[in-house]
Model the fold of this input.
Amino acid sequence: MAYPGKGLALLCRSLPKGWEPGRILLAAGFALSFIIPATDFIDQYVQLVLMYIGINIILSVSLNLVNGYMGEFSLGHAGFMAIGAYVASVISVRVFPAWAAVWLFPAAVVAGGAASALVGLLVAFPSFKTRGDYLAIVTLAFGMIVKSAIENIGALGGPRGFLGMDRLTNLPWVFFWTVLSVWFVRNLVYSRFGRGVLSIREDEIASELSGVDTRRVKMLAFVVSSFFAGVAGALFAHLLQFINPRVFDIIKSTDILIMVYLGGIGSLGGSIIGAVIYTVLLEVLRPLGVWRMVLMPLVLVLLMLYRPKGIMGLREFSWFVPRADLFSRGLRHSKKDLADGAP
Amino acid sequence: MSYLLQQVLNALQLGSIYALIALGYTMVYGILTMINFAHGDLFMVGAFLCFLSVLFLKLPFVATLVVSMLGTALLGVTIERFAYKPLRGAPRVSAIITALGVGLFLENFTLALSPYPKHIPSFIPNTIWTLGEISISLLQVVVIALSIVLMVILDLIVRRTLLGMAMRAISWDKTVAPLMGVPVDFVISATFAIGTSLGGVAGVLYGLCYPVIDPYMGIMVGWKAFISAVVGGIGNIRGAMIGGYILGAVEILVVAFLPSTYRDLVVFALLLVLLVFRPYGILGKATVQKV
Amino acid sequence: MALLEIRNLTHRFGGLAALTDFNLRIGKKELAGIIGPNGAGKTTVFNLITGVYRPTSGTISVEGKRIDGLAPNRITSLGIARTFQNIRLFKDLSVLDNVRTAHYGQASYGALPALFRLGRCRREEAGIIDLSMKLLNLFQLEAYAEEPSRNLPYGLQRRLEIARALATRPKLLLLDEPAAGMNPAEIAKLVELIGWVREEFDVAILLIEHQMRLVMNICERLIVLDFGATIAEGAPSEIRSDSKVLAAYLGEEEG
Done:
């Protein structure tokens, strides 16, 4: 896969060891995420947008794993988000004592993610036998079932929604979970499971016959993907402090799809870009009122017509690629070893 | 017993509408192997066109029908020409996302023009006949009879005319059909025109039965009709008809015996179960992949 | 014990019998070929062996262990690899990644080490890169390591597919029409390549072919299929003049 900026790469290599730009940015970001809310030198509204961007990045990266890298057709991502949102909310409102909620927040988020992951495992099973359109329908139906189910459960507030969450989501937490989701997905992608994921997209039968345990790989992909969708949902719920089933409908799933395909399938950098652009655009176009949602889909259609692979296509920023992968060329053997090669 | 028969009538009424919309999905899938996710929203446009013709143009029933059919057909063909045709060779995903985008565009465009739900004044006399304990309304007769007539006509077109033969040819082999002289673009446009106009009819009939319409109505109804098509075997025209009535029956049954909030839940759950055991639908055939 | 043993293998697609009562034994390092007119069922045999289809009846065993009914990737781990009639590479992946993917089974680290990129994962990954580059070297493809495999010329794509198959450390390699689309000069090179692969990787080879030039030159034994049944079996010299084989290919003689 190509990587931009040979000059940038040279610069990177010239820095002292341990000072890679990726790490510097991470440290800076982490520090900023504390400084900003403490000093409010950035407008509170912008802080809110930043948090939305983070949540959308998590959603976009997690969906990209299944739709982009694996080439499957999951159209019910909002369903996983809903599960995470509700589970985390119920736990933080009903289970945790009020004073402890702040400290136990990460546990609530993890619980939300875990619940989604469990359900994600279930959705993985139909994916063994069906692909393409049929899987699209299954995931679509799944998303609708989740929404319908929540509407029918009175204890969760039904169609009126669930509230009472404290505003536990803040910039440092969003930053943390965003970085974690990107890191996990990236690690998975550059492991043997990641190559399995890609090969399933390319040619599932050839993949199986090359020794890839496709069942295990699919389960892993769905579980990781839905886990982080659940995490995003949990963070979302504790930002809005109110959730109802309508928020997690097909339109939400479509929003996430737009982010993935806008930024570029099979690319972490792409997911991030897609999430950023989409969130920002949505905010910037707010004055347009309802016409903003007329413009967005039009942009999406134009995108599909003229640049279907998205902004990043299947390419990746070199920062995300593990060193071993980037510089594997250096492992070329010397001419001597070529003596006994194939005819 | 009569309660049951009454519900059967209701199921036929609802099923007819689902079947008409399902036909649009299945025809497009059969010929392009593409799920036109915007079809549900075209049905919604049909309902709004009905609203416009009844309220502003003050047209009678048949004229309203014609206006809706022509309007949606035109829209459908235009969408196909500008948004789908360029993507015929592209990966499936692009077409699906585009369809989703078109659907979203239609929904929000209509929303922008009409922020509040609209009420269609009744444009058919409200006659009701009673047979023993069962009451049949003119409405129901019109919906069911018209749907069946249209479906029979469609079946005849597909099976007996040259156009129908061309449609089937293209659905079996897209590359060879044009080599045999089949005007592929024209046939595809015709398929879209017919499929969407049926959706338009469904919009009018829906407006008859449930006179309050809003821009997002196409989502739920559309998806359920789509499920009908899948249940019957997507790509199979008779399957879509059967699927539509099955879905209508299931929905009415659920509403009759369970709290109405369970309606959608049960319908989707049944779909999932069906897909697990028979992914190709009732009349669908398993396609064997050549290795 | 035979490396591969197929007994009474029958496979039906609905009412159509693609293969009837097929028997075959392949020994270690043997080089055999399956030939026959189009539609005779040759690729079906491969699909059955590799687990793409589950046989209607009959048994397939590798070194005494039954493999019919197992998942394809399990069969691969038991020592059977294959290439395809119409090259099924991972087109958007690089040449290196095609081979690395097939080294999936050569690593053993699980999901958690992968997600956290623990030391074990990193070590095994480095090992896989090493193995893959060595394999590419042997096949003289290392110059293309970073190229998307779809950019390779046809002949090199074939070579890559064979290399990828060998990454799974098979005991038996199934080649489905490896000479398809090649001219006589290329076929000669292929003959050399196949012989070299057998020696270098200590592997038995079973191939399906239409090109008599390849098959007669290299196979120790031939099995002839027609309409799903074996009509002849033996050394190439015997098969060449067998009347049944000639009839199958050329049609019955008049009179």
Remarks:
- Chain C has two domains: 4-91+168-250, 93-147.
- DSSP finds ten helices and ten strands in chain C.
- The interface with chain B takes residues 13, 43, 47, 52, 84 of chain C (CB under 8 Å).
